[in-house]
């Protein structure tokens, strides 16, 4: 039927494509040991960190870019990327953040002013622009509870023992091509440590903003939840509208000890490029969590609406007995976006349990792939997995693909997998329209219904944001 | 039925329409008198459902000729949602399931779209729930029906009651009931009929499309139109029903 109407309804304009007008310190494009020395020096890192970076670079140089994913993109020239860019510091006040950056964050809906936040909904924010963290709020208040919340650069300087113990422990340095690249050149990102028995008193979050031209962003995040602790952490991101592609290759490592829980939510809204595939972020991310101790729990929730290319598989290693891993995902590909995303659930401990709920939405020329592995080791007696992968197609030029992999060495293990692919049917649209609801509202209603299971996992304020974002992405902001 | 002093609310003139390559309506004429109950009866394949789809602007239908006027204006160029907002309601023969969309949320969105269209204030959640309570009781629907996903996992009877719930809520002016009695047990049929009869106020107009006469024992029609091969071949009063019961459609002579 009304395919034109649908296309109009799903080609929402990118609302966050503005550029922050600030001066930037940026190094020449290119990648070699000198680049790493430059980054390490800028970050005032100890010598051992630089050595690790150089080791990673050497490994990376022996590796080749993987192409097994269902993605089609132009080759990336790693020597043409600039690996460090930072807003120039204001000379007169070292602690102050450039008002233009504050203003830009306000525009993104994030307040970096502790005083301005409404009572009762405190959210601590680490604000990262290009290669540096410009501000971390509520650090002092969190410190009273023993919670460490700072940029990874600070953590390398201030908490070397924790870094040495945990960095690369979940995602080894040469785990994959993009992780190795990140290990060599990573700039900023967030470090969180929740001490034993502490329930983090507020939501923690990081907002990543790419601003400089011709750079990539290579952040690294490390979160450690000590025994019996709990934290809910959220990340968001966006980038200016540009004609050329920009690379984002991040690594996130989560360590969950006995009886602890991490809830990790992502709202990914990198610039998606245009409908011909021009511009947009190449998003190659490695995220992995290990449930080290008994009864540890990790939950990944992601809403992926941005990026030209998404390659991302937040995974759970369920090592502790009775540990629990969850993955809830909504991935939207419209325009010419391509996403290959999913998860890996590795069951090692006894009675470990995992849940996978994946919702892929494709519109226009978008291509959406779910790729997931459920692996049950012989040691994982009594392990259980439930997977549900649903795809929703809007229009006839888009595509949805599902690649579930199952490996079970425990014959007692219970694995349940359900997959559906549906089209927003003309009958559904017509039904709603016959009740007086416009076609755009009808599409949005059906899509929201489809995503409900995942959105209900997000903290309240982010669920509202995710809904609004989905509306912008799919409904079109043109009035 | 063109008694001069009675006001017609909808007029269908020489309507020709096709679905795919097949012409179904072949010069259909029908006039709906405001406030009356019109029953459309006819054998399978006569074009009953096509007629209802043509009135509400379903995308399956291609109009080849003729016109449909509603309140003296042609509606053929109007979008489906505009026709709905103007007061034309179709109770679907097979209501679709829409997973994850809360029934109450859907109904309130539809109602508020209509109120907005009429320049009236929208209802807030509390006002809406109060309105629902009465309707649910009358239809013998459990209150959890409106917190479930729209039609998802509903039985045939529940789906039809849900159609009537929407009708009661949206208060349309022309109501098309497409095989409303199909798949209903006697209790559901009674509840559904009660809902329909409650809407009869002398102003609303009903177009009851049915294959069997059973529903007409509950909703008394004012006119019977016999549809055959894409045309209305006969219009008469309710006295035609027992004749049709006995002789079927074959013996009907064109007016």
Number of helices of chain B: 7
Number of strands of chain B: 12
Instruction: Supply Rg of chain B.
Output: 18 Å
Shape of chain A: globular
Helix content of chain B: 25-40%
Rounded mean pLDDT of chain B is: 91
Largest sheet of chain A at a glance?
Answer: 11 strands, mixed
Shape of chain B: globular
Strand coverage percent of chain A: 25-35%
Total DSSP helices of chain A: 11
- From the N-terminal CA to the C-terminal CA of chain A, the straight-line distance is 22 Å
* Oligomeric assembly: heterodimer
CATH-scheme architecture of the domain at 8-98 and 172-247 in chain B: 3-Layer(aba) Sandwich
Main pleated-sheet profile of chain B? 6 strands, mixed
Low-confidence regions of chain B: none
Helix content of chain A: 10-25%
- Spans of chain A of at least 5 consecutive residues whose pLDDT stays below 50 are none
Describe it for me?
- The complex is a heterodimer of chains A (479) and B (255).
- Chain A is of the alpha/beta class.
- Chain A has one domain (24-424).
- In chain A, 23% of the residues lie in helices and 35% in strands.
- Chain A is built from 11 helices and 23 strands.
- In chain A, strands 5, 6, 8, 10, 11, 13, 15, 16, 18, 20 and 22 form an 11-stranded mixed sheet that branches. A 10-stranded mixed sheet of chain A has the order 4-3-7-9-12-14-17-19-21-23. Chain A has a two-stranded antiparallel ribbon with strand order 1-2.
- In chain A, helix 3 (47-61) runs antiparallel to helix 8 (177-185), helix 9 (426-434) crosses helix 10 and helix 10 (439-455) packs antiparallel against helix 11.
- The radius of gyration of chain A is 22 Å and the shape is globular.
- Chain A starts with a helix and ends with a helix.
- By secondary structure, chain B is an alpha/beta fold.
- Chain B has a domain at 8-98 and 172-247: Rossmann fold, CATH 3.40.50.300.
- In chain B, 32% of the residues lie in helices and 29% in strands.
- In chain B, strands 6-9-10-3-11-12 form a 6-stranded mixed sheet, with helices on both faces. A 4-stranded antiparallel sheet of chain B has the order 2-1-4-5. In chain B, strands 7-8 form a two-stranded antiparallel sheet.
- The N and C termini of chain B lie close together (12 Å).
- The chains are: A alpha/beta (479), B alpha/beta (255).
- The A-B interface holds A 1-2, 425-428, 430-439, 441, 445-446, 448-453 and B 56, 58-59, 79-81, 84-85, 89-90, 92, 95-96, 98-102, 106, 109-110, 113-114, 117, 149-150, 166, 170.
